[in-house]
Amino acid sequence: MVPTIRDVAQRAGVSISTVSRVLNNSAAVDEAKRQRVQEAAKALGYSPNPAALSLLGQSTGGIGVLLPYIAGDFFSEFLHGIDRLTSDNGYFLVVSSSHRNVKEFRAVIQGLNRRVDGLIVMSTEVPAQTVCGWLPPNLPIVFVNTEVDRDDIEAVNFDNRGGAYRLTEHLLEQGHRRIGFVKGPDASCDADDRLEGFRAALRDHGVEPNPALEVAGDFTLEAGQSAVPAFLALDPRPTAIFAANDLSAYGVVSALRDAGLDVPGDVAVAGFDDIQLSRFSSPTLTTVHAPVREMGQSAIERLLAQIKGAGGRDREAVTLDTEVVVRESTAS
């Protein structure tokens, strides 16, 4: 059984309030009582509840991280960027996910904020200013890959729109004019930005976006697989397919092969994110390199500066560059 403050008080022969004063260092306590309390807490292995420490304005030692999902190369790479600097500064990570569900997101973030000293939040469905309204105004927080409309909110994003624009340009430069697009989740700012970049590049090169060439998706392998029959039913079918993330692109490649088509001989395929598998898949995947690890590193640096009260810092939203990486899946 986990020891409680009552257990410490009984072992030390003092009141619960005395234990609280000793552990929180909130008032003067007789030295003999202080020593008994400290020895009792050590013997029992007792440590105060992080939520209680937070309410008392003391450090919990925790950094909260809220992501849409935890599984997958994208999120693993992001956490890798955060992990080392967190531990090097004497903190530990408390990681949770929202499953892209707004109700679940709000419940999780309001629970996390009482247990940690600061938050890193990836909120693709809810704008940063809305999230801030659900939290104490003095809570250190840095947003990543999140829509930000206020100058006083600190955020680290990467250029989703620009990356999608440049990859679409690459396909157009190879002579493709009928390009299919597998979309990301509805009401997701990163997915919306990638779709917007795709459409803008088409228009700027004299190609009107065609709704029949845009198929719903949700950033999953299955979404890519499910999109292919709709593309193949078109006459003429697309000569290239751009999936809104790499995982969906793998699904597209798999379904095209099942249909007896060659990639890139019959249909070129591209993705977005440049997760590790993209360099080793067959064919290797043309994609947009998103600096996910660097985004994590920048976010934790900024959050630690907030927690430590670094003076002279302006909170700002920064956007990291993305880069097209051309590989075998779009080779002409």
Automatic annotation (TrEMBL):
Keywords on record: DNA-binding, Transcription, Transcription regulation
GO molecular function: DNA-binding transcription factor activity; transcription cis-regulatory region binding
Pfam family, one: Peripla_BP_3
Signal peptide start-end: none
SUPFAM superfamilies: lambda repressor-like DNA-binding domains, Periplasmic binding protein-like I
Occurrences of domain HTH lacI-type (ranges): 3-57
Protein name, as recorded: HTH lacI-type domain-containing protein
Record flagged with keyword Ion transport: no
